[in-house]
Structure to design on (478 residues):
């Protein structure tokens, strides 16, 4: 009795104070029809920041708003609500993210413990057309309790629900309990982080006939699996390494100044932002649900390139005697260019680069592809296109011995590398040998370059339809 009296007294006091209870607040729905603008900032590792700005009519005091059509992958802990019309006038008392969407299995699961109507499509003799049944369980199938029996399946029957559960929505919905200090229509901004939005870069390069220049174009590929559509969105990309503590690790790609070469129109513009780069699409675009969209961001013409043929060895055979190291070793083909000058000289995002070249009939053929890392301006892009068909190599160890019996960890190891060229023109092959520990070249048929502390390199000229031989001895101390 004392508890009942206290409850009645509390309700009377609240009513007298003019404060409305949550239960008395009528839920109002906000749809995309209220949307004034949506900004989407996409990071590369499946993360995006969404600013959804809508026109809401809020009463002074408490308001319950069902904000529909948010991302199904919304991080509810990251959401922020601000009034743009009256800054500081709106605060969040409570919010609930309803991502359990309306679907047959969810509707049936919510009906456990409740009574539904079972309609028999082809009732048997003596069976009513409709019966009430209580849903006991949906584990590994449905279990229904009728007035006189329990059944574990529906036979030529379907379920009729008399109402929808209050927490089951047909679209992802963020229910906001807002406190407003003004009683006027307001532009309210809801911002939140979400997964399901990402981007990456792809490039296409057309190699010139004499293989000294390259036309390069790039596309940003956007993917939306967030569960909603962002219509006429103001799109931005952020580049840089942004720290996000676990359990949401984030590593962002790097993208450069995005421009349409040869045109005054820039589809994307760049600005420096903190320690990152911010890239803004100059026109709005619709990012539809379950859609992949591509946007052009770079086009550079007549970029000087350099083709190299390289034979790369391994450091494991310098410490022991071995048999032939290969009679037809592949010689790798690389194409490189400097990211500077002209229409380049911009930070390039990591991505896949596909190269093409026209044949004698003018038909474009695929040369090969390679992935590049994030490449700042003034750095070199280096692409492994494939292996040479006409240029091959044979490598063998010609001598191996321990230099001193008093120190068994010093070796002299000698090699012969024979390069063959079946082309009608001379070629240069860069021979790169990683040599472990302390080393020195004690003899060689041509001078080497110590390109790093553990690397010796030789640039070997190979005549057309001919051969060239590199001979050297390395002394290695372990």
């Amino acid at each position: 009795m004392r508890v009942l009296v206290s409850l009645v007294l509390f309700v009377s006091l609240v009513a007298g104070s003019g404060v409305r209870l949550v239960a008395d607040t009528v839920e109002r729905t906000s749809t995309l029809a209220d949307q004034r603008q949506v900004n989407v900032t996409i990071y590369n590792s499946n993360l995006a920041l969404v600013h959804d700005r809508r026109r809401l009519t809020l009463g002074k005091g408490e308001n319950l708003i069902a904000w529909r059509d948010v991302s199904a992958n919304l991080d509810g802990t990251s959401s922020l609500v601000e009034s743009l019309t009256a800054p500081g006038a709106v605060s969040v008392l409570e919010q609930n993210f309803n991502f359990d969407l309306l679907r047959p299995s969810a509707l049936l699961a919510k009906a456990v413990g409740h009574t539904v109507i079972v309609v028999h499509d082809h009732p048997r003799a003596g069976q009513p057309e409709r019966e009430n049944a209580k849903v006991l369980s949906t584990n590994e199938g449905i279990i229904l309790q009728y007035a006189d029996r329990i059944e574990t399946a529906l036979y030529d029957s379907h379920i009729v629900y008399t109402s929808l559960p209050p927490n089951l929505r047909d679209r992802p919905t963020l229910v906001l309990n807002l406190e407003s200090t003004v009683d006027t229509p307001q532009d309210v901004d809801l911002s939140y982080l979400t997964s399901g939005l990402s981007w990456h870069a792809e490039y296409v390069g057309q190699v010139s006939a004499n293989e000294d220049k390259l036309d390069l174009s790039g596309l940003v590929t956007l993917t939306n699996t967030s569960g909603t559509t962002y219509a006429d969105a103001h799109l931005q990309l952020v580049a840089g390494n942004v720290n996000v503590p676990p359990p949401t690790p984030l590593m962002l790609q790097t993208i450069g100044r995005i421009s349409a070469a040869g045109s005054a129109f820039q589809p994307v513009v760049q600005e420096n932002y903190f320690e990152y780069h911010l890239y803004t699409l100059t026109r709005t675009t619709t990012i539809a649900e379950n859609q992949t969209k591509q946007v052009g961001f770079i086009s550079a013409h007549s970029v000087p390139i350099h083709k190299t043929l390289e034979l790369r060895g391994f450091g494991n055979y310098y410490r022991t005697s071995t048999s032939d190291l290969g009679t037809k070793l592949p010689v790798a083909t690389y194409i490189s260019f400097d990211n500077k000058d002209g229409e380049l000289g911009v930070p390039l995002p990591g991505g896949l680069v596909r190269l093409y070249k026209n044949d004698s009939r003018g038909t474009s053929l695929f040369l090969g592809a390679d992935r590049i890392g994030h490449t700042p301006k003034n750095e070199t892009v280096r692409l492994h296109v494939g292996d040479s068909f006409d240029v091959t190599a044979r490598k063998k160890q010609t001598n191996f011995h321990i230099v001193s019996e008093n120190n068994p960890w010093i070796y002299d190891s000698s090699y012969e590398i024979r390069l063959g060229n079946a082309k009608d023109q001379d070629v240069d092959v860069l021979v790169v040998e990683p040599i472990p520990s302390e080393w020195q070249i004690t003899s060689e048929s041509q001078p080497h370059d110590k390109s790093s502390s553990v690397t010796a390199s030789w640039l070997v000229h190979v005549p057309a339809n001919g051969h060239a031989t590199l001979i050297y001895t390395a002394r290695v101390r372990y």
User: Anything to note?
Assistant: Residues 1-23, 247-265 have pLDDT under 50 and may be disordered.
